[in-house]
Design a protein that fits this description.
Length: about 400
């Protein structure tokens, strides 16, 4: 979403125009909201971070840095550490500033290729272990299912810039070609081996929920939540008992794979439509061993107005075919996936509760927590219901 500007002696917009043209020409996340502006800086302000209001819903953030400049230890320094560059001029445009990470596209002076740099936030680091960060990105890069990793550090990760756009929820519920390509891509990802840095049979979902709940419970701001901490904890424990701890029941059939962990449509990029749809995955900081059904449901979870059961069923059938599961597995996997819709809403509700107690007590975040909590409450019956259905099917290998 953002803007850049160069040194006072450089032609106005020289670097900005280059980056703007590259982004518009190649496409990237949230590109519809991308605005790039130029503003000549005085000779004593050679490194700046400025916001410009460009209309409703549009804010640009300029960040242009030069080697040797005196500026605060902030974003520019972190980007340099991630890409391991000290002496080059960098022109950076912030692509997204979300709840978990800040993402920039970076242009180095005299380098044609653009780099995407993701800087991890506290909320991201909380849910991941140090020795696991970037491991899945590298595994997926080697498998050709995601962007090439250029640098991997504790602070963030850098990878190649991808041309295309991210999927929208409506794509999966209206386009058969997108659904078929997504099924093959996700099946290929799920077939990868869990790296040794992870415990292969321990789903990360429960690690995230426990760490987030502990932070919420220890916060002095917890009383400000629209949902009590005790109620949140009770539902997390209830879901854990039904899904994680029921080793003798149908829950044992819930398959754990190398999962994306945050497989929403905006983490799948459409990179080509000719001669056929080509997709790739992005954003792997929450990836690791997790429930297959959680991944699949997060991809297809949407509003009742958008949801298409026919497209969901076709996706599951195509996934089974790509994964070599056979036709008999289709109905079982449908039930397995639907077990997790309530958990996708519960995990999101707990996340927004954490955002609020960590200083994000805004009307927007309160509304997001309330929305996710209400959706969880409306859907939590699905866990027991689909576990019973799943229990009537035989286990497949």
């Amino acid at each position: 979403d953002k803007s850049t500007k160069g040194r006072s002696m450089a032609p106005m917009g020289a670097y900005t125009t280059t980056l703007h043209e590259a982004l518009v020409g190649r496409g990237y996340r949230r590109l519809a909201r991308l605005t790039v502006t130029s503003k000549r800086l005085s000779s004593h302000r050679r490194c700046s971070r400025q916001q410009h209001d460009t209309g409703p819903g549009r804010v640009t953030l300029g960040l242009t840095c030069h080697a040797g400049d005196t500026c605060n230890e902030g974003t520019e320094a972190r980007i340099r550490r991630v890409i391991k560059v000290d002496a080059a001029k960098l022109t950076c445009s912030e692509l997204s500033k979300g709840y978990c990470n800040d993402v920039f596209v970076v242009e180095q002076e005299n380098e044609e290729a653009l780099i995407v740099v993701k800087l991890y936030s506290y909320l991201s680091l909380l849910r991941t272990d140090r020795n696991q960060r970037g491991v899945i990105d590298e595994r997926v890069s080697e498998a050709g299912l995601g962007p090439s990793v250029l640098s991997n550090t504790d602070e963030g990760i850098a990878h190649s810039f991808l041309q295309g756009r991210v999927l929208e929820e409506v794509d999966l519920h209206t386009r058969a070609d997108v659904g078929a390509a997504a099924a093959k891509l996700v099946a290929a990802f799920h077939s990868l081996q869990v790296p040794p840095e992870f415990e292969p049979t321990r789903p990360l979902l429960w690690t995230w929920l426990e760490r987030m709940m502990e932070e919420i419970e220890e916060s002095a701001s917890a009383d400000a939540l629209p949902v009590s901490v005790q109620v949140l904890r009770g539902e997390v424990d209830r879901m854990a008992a039904a899904v994680r701890d029921d080793a003798a029941g149908a829950a044992r059939m819930l398959r754990v794979v190398l999962a994306h962990g945050d497989l929403k449509p905006t983490n799948v990029m459409l990179v080509s439509q000719e001669p056929e749809v080509e997709l790739t995955l992005i954003d792997f900081e929450l990836s690791g061993p997790n429930y297959r059904g959680f991944d699949l449901m997060k991809l297809f979870r949407t509003s009742p107005e958008t949801y298409c059961e026919e497209r969901f069923a076709a996706f599951i059938a195509q996934y089974c075919q790509a994964a070599g599961l056979g036709e008999t597995a289709v109905h079982e996997l449908e039930a397995e996936t639907k077990v997790f819709e309530p958990l996708t809403w519960l995990e999101a509700a707990v996340f927004f509760a954490l955002v609020i107690v960590k200083g994000g007590d805004t009307p927007e975040n309160v509304a997001l927590l309330t929305d996710r909590w209400e959706k969880y409450q409306a859907k939590k019956w699905m866990v027991d219901h689909y576990l019973r259905i799943l229990g009537r099917h035989r286990t497949w290998k």
